From TrEMBL:
Coiled coil segments of this chain: none
Species assigned in the record: Acrocarpospora macrocephala
BP GO annotations: regulation of DNA-templated transcription
Protein name, per record: CopG family transcriptional regulator
Entry's transmembrane regions: none
UniProt cross-references to SUPFAM superfamilies, sorted A to Z: Ribbon-helix-helix
Amino acid sequence: MPEAEKITINMNVVDLGKVDLLVEEGFYSNRTDFIRTAIRNQLNRHDDEVRTSMSRRELAIGVISYDRAELEWHAEAGERLNIALTGLLSIASDVSPELARQTIQSIKIVGVFRASKAVKDALADRTH
């Protein structure tokens, strides 16, 4: 399973009390278990809509990582990458801003984009 991303939510006290009651009754191991289950259930409920949207936007799903060696290979082959992804895009710390600009033509990310600040700045005009 890919690395988890931390989020923070605000809940009203009555709903939170109901969650705590379900945890105390043994339906869930803790609040996080309840929230993850609720999110998964909603994503499953809307699976057709998610697939349609991803198809319409031409997005892949998953985790993609690029390091210096891989981007140098694309540069030597004269290839420019158009990355369209739902999930996590990670560009390794050994990638220079110049190499990133040379090899990455566009980035469309719905999710998390991890890269050095310098690389993100270099690709800012190519990120949607």
